[in-house]
């Protein structure tokens, strides 16, 4: 077996280990628990807890109207939210940045655009 062949086999084994490790880390992170919290402005949450892999992440967007020659006329990314499956309350994730970093591990990611 040549040195080049050995290196290729070692690289393939290393790539497989990295992929396996990444999958295991993502699986563990997808079991992160999120709580339906009490929110005085929008109503009271029920306190139910869910794995993020079982709920939908809602990415809000807001529109900036045109202004002047080159300003506005564009969509901006807003905050992340989720709707509680038990009580239907919309929970904001603006103060839970750790969940925004895990956005891709939620069951679904939905883009919501509001004028």
Give a brief outline of the structure.
The chain is of the alpha+beta class.
Which terms summarize this structure?
115 residues; 6 strands; four-stranded mixed beta sheet; 2 domains; two-stranded antiparallel sheet; flat; 30% strand; alpha+beta
Strand residue percentage: 25-35%
Please give the share of residues in helix.
25-40%
Q: How far apart, in Å, are the first and last alpha carbons?
A: 64 Å
Poorly predicted sequence stretches spanning 5 or more consecutive residues:
none
Please give the largest β-sheet: 4 strands, mixed
Contiguous helical run count:
2
CA radius of gyration: 21 Å
What is the tally of beta strands? 6
Instruction: Give the overall form.
Output: flat
The overall number of domains is 2
Structural class comes to: alpha+beta
Tell me the strand order in the biggest sheet: 5-4-3-6
Listing every helix as H and every strand as E from the N terminus to the C terminus, the arrangement reads HEEEEEHE
Mean pLDDT: 80
Oligomer type = single chain
Task: Please characterize this protein's 3D structure.
This protein has two domains: 1-30; 33-114, no CATH class. The mean pLDDT is 80. The protein contains two helices and six strands. 27% of the residues lie in helices and 30% in strands. The chain is flat and about 70 Å long. 9% of the residues are buried. Strand 4 (74-83) and strand 5 (90-92) form a beta hairpin. With 115 residues, it is α+β, with helices and mostly antiparallel strands.
């Amino acid at each position: 077996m040549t040195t080049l062949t050995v290196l290729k086999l070692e690289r393939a084994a290393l790539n497989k280990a990295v992929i396996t490790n990444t999958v295991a880390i993502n699986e563990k992170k997808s079991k992160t628990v999120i709580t339906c919290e009490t929110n005085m402005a929008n109503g009271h949450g029920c306190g139910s807890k869910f794995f993020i892999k079982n709920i939908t992440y809602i990415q809000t967007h807001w529109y900036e109207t045109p202004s002047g020659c080159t300003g506005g006329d564009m969509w901006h990314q807003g905050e992340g939210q989720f709707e509680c499956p038990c009580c239907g309350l919309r929970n904001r994730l603006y103060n839970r940045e750790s969940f925004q970093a895990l956005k891709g591990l939620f069951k679904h990611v939905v883009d919501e655009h509001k004028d």
